[in-house]
Design brief:
Protein name: RPGF4 factor
CATH topology of the largest domain: Ubiquitin-like (UB roll)
CATH architecture of the largest domain: Roll
Radius of gyration: 23 Å
GO biological process, one term: signal transduction
Order of helices and strands: HHHEHEEH
Largest sheet: 3 strands, antiparallel
GO molecular function, one term: guanyl-nucleotide exchange factor activity
Keywords: Guanine-nucleotide releasing factor
InterPro entries: RA_dom, Ras-like_Gua-exchang_fac_N, Ras_GEF_dom_sf, Ubiquitin-like_domsf
Length: about 160
């Protein structure tokens, strides 16, 4: 954020610093806009956003051109810090483990490597299909099973969602 070139005129150095600062501010704004609901649960991220806002505010005193991005940054920081702390389901996941209601799950017996689990596989067009794979399957095996079911493995990603979001 504070990178400065060691060569050039003072005006070139100021332009370089301004462009770098604007790029970083845009990056932070995009990051906060995309992950705001997750960031509010992370104290370190919230502390970073607040510290970043203060730093940008201080910089606007010396670099007036940054003032145009300050209100948007302030809005994002306030929005994230004021949102309710309850987790929100805004993100789709590629794989979601079914809460199978079979007898073994209800009796809380130990999971064996030969047991199978069902996954929901979400596609970009908001449809989904299901696959059944052994508990002991590797990530490659799961992705391979998905590719076989969908007919293509191109562009597949695997995402893990925990109960904390």
């Amino acid at each position: 954020y504070h990178a400065q070139p060691s060569q050039g005129t003072e005006q070139e150095k100021m332009d370089y610093a301004l462009n770098n600062k604007r790029r970083v501010i845009r990056l932070v704004l995009q990051w906060a806009a995309l992950y705001g609901d997750l960031l509010q649960e992370d104290e370190a991220a919230m502390a970073f956003l607040e510290e970043f806002y203060v730093s940008v505010s201080d910089d606007t005193r010396m670099i007036a051109a940054l003032k145009e991005q300050l209100p948007e940054l302030e809005k994002i920081v306030k929005q994230i810090s004021e949102e309710p702390k309850a987790p929100q389901k805004k993100h789709k996941v590629l794989l979601q483990l079914f809460n199978a209601s079979d007898d073994r799950a209800q009796k809380r017996q130990p999971i064996r490597g030969s047991d199978e689990v069902l996954f929901k596989v979400y596609c970009i067009d908001q449809t989904y299909t299901t696959i059944r794979v052994p508990v002991s399957s590797s990530v490659k095996e799961v992705i391979s099973a998905v590719a076989d079911k969908l007919g293509s493995g191109e562009g597949l990603i695997i995402v893990k969602m925990s109960s904390g979001g």
